[in-house]
Please model this.
Amino acid sequence: APAPRRASCRALGRRAARTGRTGARLGGPGQAGSLLDAAGGPAALLPGLWAGGRGDEAEAAAAGLAPYLPREQRARSLLAVARQQSESSFDRAIATCVVALAIAAVSRAARADLLAVRALSCANKADFAELERTLAEARAVADPASDVAALATIDATEAVYEFNSNRFEDAVALIDSALARIGARGQGAALW
Model:
């Protein structure tokens, strides 16, 4: 494996060991080891690299692991990266979402989460044409019964758009909806 991928895989392995996920053996195809089978897979470990100030390694790890992951885990790994990128580079977050959304046979839930992150990044970038398109697609994909967090993000993102468009009542209704969705999930709005 190339040095950057080996370093990223070692960092994921160290993170797995610290979180109690063992067997972080990463080799070639067919030798991915139990890290890839752990609950949440590598997608659950990538934010740890990011939180440790290793964003470039998180991106490299996601790219390096991609050929070895099943489609759903690959999309979820890219989602983890896009969520972090949305805090610093809207263009990179959007590009990562586009790549993940292009993966065939990804679950509806993963698509809803990816579209929510893409919408948020489009809003932050002030790309309103793409925001409108992404919001419509996200609402068509998301299931109100199960995609609560994605829909809360979509509502909050659309609320900002409505506010900036001087549609204040619509903005307030969307924020109320986002907060209600998160509250019904038992999650505090400050943590969301």
Q: What stands out?
A: The chain has nine helices and no strands.
